[in-house]
Amino acid sequence: MDLPPVLSALGARVTIAGPAGERSAPVEEIGTGYLETSIRLDELITLLEVPPLGGRSAAYLKCTTRSADDWPAVGVAVVLLLEKHLISEASVVISAATDKPTRLAAVEKILLGRKIDENLLDEAATQELSIDGDLHGSAAYKKQLIRVYLRRAIHEARAQSR
Description:
Elements (H helix, E strand, L loop, with lengths): L2 H8 L2 E6 L2 E6 L4 E3 L2 E2 L6 E6 L7 E8 L7 E12 L2 E10 L6 E2 L1 H7 L6 H8 L13 H23 L1
């Protein structure tokens, strides 16, 4: 559950090969549901392309209920491009709280063109999400974790850009 949100936020693509030939797809389009992918039984991933960060900065934070290598209750990946203290590019993907890695387009839209401050973080963290509860936490608990970890990941990405 750790790599898919990170790779999705970074804009990674995979090449998939099978008897019908090769095809390319963004990583975020591979996951279709809980432990399900769009890769057919007669296909396999032959190449993973991760674009260079360039001037962007990234952070991935997760909360586990047991050990660090346990299945996370929530994971948050954030990639930002800051220009003159304003966010000119934002990518936010969560995992474990949903049935597949999920891009938070509404949060990305809120972040664009703005300076990171507490009002912005409050606005981004209050976006309504459809969250699944499981043995790692209820939906309400995971929503609160996302609010907290989204703020932390944005702060971490900003710190990385310095």
